[in-house]
């Protein structure tokens, strides 16, 4: 087995095409660059964070924050339920196809 070279995986800034050398935190480097230089919220983040679903970005006050936390908790609970269902369904299909 040959090790896969990681040097080819340069991250490019989608705005100014600036390349970011591979490193442990190249992702956060690019995200920080986007935020600081272009005043953009990160869109390259592969994993959806809970704020991605918040339509009007900024939290106004403490009450707002609590309200959002409650909402996102409810939302993620629903997502977890849905995912579990999907997993069970997938598992069932898998077992089914193995049985055939
Ligand atoms: Zn840039």
From TrEMBL:
UniProt region (Disordered), positions on chain: 22-81
Highest rank taxon of the organism: Eukaryota
Feature: compositional bias, Basic residues: 68-81
Composition-biased stretches (Basic and acidic residues): 49-67
Gene3D superfamilies from the UniProt entry: Classic Zinc Finger (3.30.160.60)
Name used for this protein in its record: BED-type domain-containing protein
Organism of provenance: Linnemannia hyalina
